[in-house]
Specification:
Layout (H helix, E strand, L loop, with lengths): L5 H13 L3 H7 L1 H18 L4 E7 L7 H4 L3 E8 L2 H10 L6 E5 L12 E6 L3 H4 L4 H11 E13 L9 H9 L6 E5 L2 E6 L1 H10 L2 E9 L8 H4 L7 H16 L11 E8 L1
Parallel strand pairs: 1-2, 1-4, 2-3, 4-5, 5-7
Antiparallel strand pairs: 5-9, 6-7, 8-9
């Protein structure tokens, strides 16, 4: 599938602009510090003392997770639609000969059926896909072996900071159930999901939810401007980090796990 979708081009353009600042952003901004803390928590549990034959990282971006996955797979493949980010990922993983990167659309992966033992997709990849997100889920399931681990991140429809986003709140109120809802950040729009919607989609494609986590749960009560700036610049930013530590402990506990700004799903291919 050619990557000609305007929304996809917006994603490429935005991340190209952020490319040089990416590592600094995830080290300084409370929102990203909190989400990467959950990534590390889950990756530690999934990967420690474990090795997979073939791992796929969908929407690998600059390879922040791929470099970690490289230590736990005999063959690791990262795919993304952005050439610039793939170049960064290639450099980050240059010492790992068993890691390779390909320019691919998540909606039309080139791999054979039942190829991978584990499929990862962190960083809002599915929520970036406004047209064809269901196809992307179908593709991740298709290339996963029976019993394979499939884990990914999406934007959550309802979160504790929703009142800072009045347009999003009103859209959500008039679009109940699994109706298509989005949120906006910078020049990007993100597809948002509910737990029920995700569960239904995964069951349709032979995937069963094992764990459902949220990040930036309580931290979402901090106004956006403070969670998206250097945490050292304000008490609000430091408060968001403190709340993020509580969120980490609550990440899989109902109902908090369904109220994060983002959700991370761990599923199994049946």
């Amino acid at each position: 599938m050619p990557i000609t979708n305007p929304a996809s081009q917006d994603v490429v353009s935005t991340y190209k602009r952020l490319k040089s600042d990416y590592d600094q952003i995830i080290a300084e901004q409370p929102f990203f510090i909190n989400c990467y803390a959950l990534y590390e928590k889950l990756l530690d549990r999934i990967l420690t003392n474990r090795r997979f034959e073939k791992i796929l990282d969908v929407g690998c971006g600059p390879g922040a997770q791929t470099v970690r996955l490289a230590q736990h797979g005999t063959e690791v493949i990262g795919v993304d639609i952005a050439d610039d980010l793939l170049a960064v990922a290639q450099e980050r993983c240059r010492t790992y000969r068993h890691v390779k990167f390909l320019k691919e659309d998540a909606r039309a992966l080139s791999f054979d059926n039942e190829t991978f033992d584990a499929v990862f997709s962190y960083g809002d990849v599915l929520s970036h896909i406004l047209e064809g997100y269901e196809q992307a889920i179908a593709e991740m399931s298709r290339v996963a072996k029976p019993g394979a681990l499939v884990t990914f991140e999406v934007d959550n429809k309802w979160h504790l900071g929703i009142f800072y986003h009045p347009v999003e709140f009103l859209k959500n109120m008039v679009t109940p159930g699994r109706g298509h809802t989005t949120r906006q950040w910078e020049d990007l729009h993100f597809k948002t999901f509910t737990y029920r919607e995700i569960k239904k989609l995964l069951l349709k494609y032979g995937l069963e939810i094992k764990e459902y986590h949220g990040h930036n749960i309580l931290a979402a009560v901090v106004p956006d401007r403070y969670v998206l700036e250097n945490y050292q610049q304000s008490l609000w930013g430091r408060t968001a980090l403190w709340l993020g530590k509580i969120d980490l402990a609550l990440s899989d506990r109902f109902p908090f796990n369904c109220l994060g700004f983002n959700s991370i799903i761990i599923a199994r291919k049946k």
